[in-house]
Amino acid sequence: MGERFDAAVVGAGAAGMMTAAVAAQRGLRVVLVDHAERLAEKIRISGGGRCNFTNLGASPTQFLSRNPDFCRSALRAYGPGDFLDLLRTHRVSWHEKHRGQLFCDDSSESVIRVLRRECEAGGVHWRMPCTVRDVGRDADGFRLDTDAGPIRAARLVLATGGMAIPQLGATDFSLRIARQFGLRIVEPRPALVPLTFDADLWRPYAALAGVSLEVRLSHQAPAAEGGGQRARRPACAEFLEDLLFTHRGLSGPGILQISSHWRPGDPIRIDLAPGRDMGSALVAAKSGSRQTVAAALAQSWPRRLAEAWLGTAGETGGGDLAGLGGLRLADAPDRRLRALAERIHGWTLWPTGTAGYKKAEVMSGGVDTAELDQRSMESRRCPGLHVVGEAVDVTGWLGGYNFQWAWSSGVACGRAL
Ligand code: FDA
């Protein structure tokens, strides 16, 4: 038999707690199940411990999905302003850090506390830690076989998020159960993740680990891509953000952003001096200059970067760049300086992979939005089954968008249960 509920929500993270709180406060009998020992670990570690819980500019433009419009109605019904109202009610203060990104003044624990209290206000029943061994369905609704006994529920909400950071207990539970009930899945992959390179090719840059600078990154999707894929991946993505050199490759906000668009085999293009005309600047700086080309570049970049990057550009960039770093700027022909500038503004690299789910902030892909009603997050194929949060094929940019999607999809679902 098992205890009976109106709705069972599996996953007590950002989207699951929001769904459960909203549904329970409408008077539904809701059970929230999670296998973790500690509540909402991803909220706790997010934003360096201060949780970048939304972005003031959140709109469908900052989300990747096979159907980029899918998130529109949930974001309209519950946007950043609504979440701020909720934080105000609980006297949580925040600040804006960068381009609309909002963080807690205190710590991300405040956001967890707000969601837990909202669940308590609705009388949500908790099963945690609790493992769901099996899920079945009959005329009476869903049956969950858990290590805390059987649970029966008229509706089931899959809210176990994505597979990023398995060391924190992330699993593919939602995708597995969605598949079990016949829902299509858009291939999941790590996103907002560092990019890696062939170890031999990267060796000259490995010494630059820790160097960071603002760059413009762009990615062009191959022209041959099919219609469906193109809709999911804009033809061209561009970000002006910081880049960070690591021992194995590249990271930093700019790379994390571009990684959500990148696919194996694609190049990425980096403008190492965005907004400047390096060709004209180097040629103009020649007259009377006694410094080397490397020293001239070191006025705009960290010295380590200027020397190592110029050395490698010299080895791989052909005749015009060979030995240029050690040459006096005044002696360098304009043609060679302009060739160098071209390389600086259009450094093209072919990553060989990503750092994987262990280092990713999110999973892109997930339950295909074509399977779900955008107002209720309910499956069209399997009535009574809902999917929310990161498990859905809706992936936000870096900057608070993924939490906003968790809140918006959770509220949409909680109101519709
Ligand atoms: P979420 O991951 O929050 O919750 C899923 C829950 O399901 C967890 O409690 C888990 O224990 C549970 N679960 C998993 N498998 C289960 C199973 N088999 N059985 C039972 N329970 C199971 N986003 C953002 O907008 N701003 C930010 O600052 C950050 N920062 C950030 C830092 C780091 C290091 C990471 C890894 C991620 C971020 N994110 C972020 C992304 C953000 O954390 C993420 O998109 C949301 O937490 C997704 O919310 P969900 O509720 O969908 O999943």
From TrEMBL:
Protein name: NAD(P)/FAD-dependent oxidoreductase
Pfam families: HI0933_like, HI0933_like_1st
Lineage per the UniProt record: Bacteria, Pseudomonadati, Pseudomonadota, Betaproteobacteria, Burkholderiales
Keyword Flavoprotein set for record: yes
NCBIfam families: aminoacetone oxidase family FAD-binding enzyme
UniProt entry keywords in alphabetical sequence: FAD, Flavoprotein
InterPro entries membership: BaiN-like, BaiN-like_dom_sf, FAD/NAD-bd_sf, RsdA/BaiN/AoA(So)-like_dom, RsdA/BaiN/AoA(So)_Rossmann
Domain called RsdA/BaiN/AoA(So)-like Rossmann fold-like: residue spans: 6-415
Reported cofactor(s): FAD
RsdA/BaiN/AoA(So)-like insert domain: residues covered: 189-362
Entry keyword annotation includes Flavoprotein: yes
